């Protein structure tokens, strides 16, 4: 085993996932809504705590795993979560309730993100997490950067596409979109970008002043 593989395994094995999030993860697997990994979840929690998040938008609810991680880092925040699958939202609502998240701290929106996001207030949020419809990831990130305040974060998990992004032979639409997103944001003057290889990968974008 290489040093890189040993470090990655050690990092994975040291993360202790809270029981409420572990239960939500099990529900997500049952739904077929693959949750973010514990490593990515822990990073999201740290970032939410670091920016003192009070208002969070999540695109792609699943069973509530990513929402619970974000609220772990920012327990005073209000989470707005968007999904076009009512079943997913129902399970997530149950999981957040079981985790003792007050109903006043959550807002569940059923619908296509492409329809919902244009109606949301510009610069009104601290964090936008994009974890849905990977074929539309560039459009959703553009909306996310409009919605977050200066200094706010747009977080995009799964950007390594299971290793395909790093393989130049892979040229399917989703892999190409992720690859373009990573490259363009690294060169952009509008954001500060960092790519983490933990778990399935996490692209972190901080909006800078106009």
Describe the protein:
The protein is α/β, with parallel strands linked by helices and 210 residues long. The chain has a single domain (3-207), classed as Vaccinia Virus protein VP39 (Rossmann fold). Helix content is 43%, strand content 21%. Strands 3-2-1-4-5-7-6 form a seven-stranded mixed sheet, sandwiched between helices. The chain is globular.
Number of distinct helices? 8
CATH superfamily name? Vaccinia Virus protein VP39
Q: Which class do the helix and strand fractions yield?
A: alpha/beta
Helix content: 40-55%
Counting structural domains, the number is 1
Mean pLDDT, rounded to whole units? Answer: 95
Largest sheet: 7 strands, mixed
Numbering strands along the chain, what is their spatial order in the largest sheet? 3-2-1-4-5-7-6
CATH topology: Rossmann fold
Shape: globular
- Radius of gyration using CA atoms only: 16 Å
> Uncertain spans, ≥5 residues at pLDDT below 50?
none
Topology, number of strands: 7
Which characteristics define this entry?
210 residues; alpha/beta; Rossmann fold; seven-stranded mixed β-sheet; 8 helices; 7 strands; 21% strand
């Amino acid at each position: 085993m290489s040093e890189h593989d040993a470090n990655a395994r050690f990092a994975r094995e040291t993360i202790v996932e809270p029981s409420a999030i572990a239960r939500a993860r099990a529900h997500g697997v049952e739904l077929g809504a693959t949750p973010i990994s514990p490593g990515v979840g822990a990073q999201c929690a740290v970032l939410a705590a670091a920016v003192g998040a009070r208002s969070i938008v999540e695109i792609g609810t699943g069973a509530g795993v990513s929402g619970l991680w974000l609220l772990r880092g920012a327990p005073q925040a209000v989470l707005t979560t968007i999904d076009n699958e009512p079943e997913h939202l129902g399970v997530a609502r149950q999981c957040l309730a079981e985790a003792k998240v007050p109903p006043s701290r959550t807002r569940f929106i059923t619908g296509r993100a492409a329809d919902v996001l244009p109606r949301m207030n510009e610069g009104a949020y601290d964090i936008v997490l994009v974890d849905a419809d990977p074929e539309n990831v560039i459009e959703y990130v553009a909306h996310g950067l409009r919605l977050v305040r200066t200094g706010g974060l747009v977080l995009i998990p799964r950007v390594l596409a299971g290793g395909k992004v790093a393989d130049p032979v892979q040229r399917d639409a989703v892999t190409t979109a992720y690859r373009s997103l990573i490259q363009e944001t690294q060169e952009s003057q509008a954001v500060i970008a960092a790519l983490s290889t933990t778990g399935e990968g996490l692209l972190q974008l901080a909006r800078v002043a106009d």
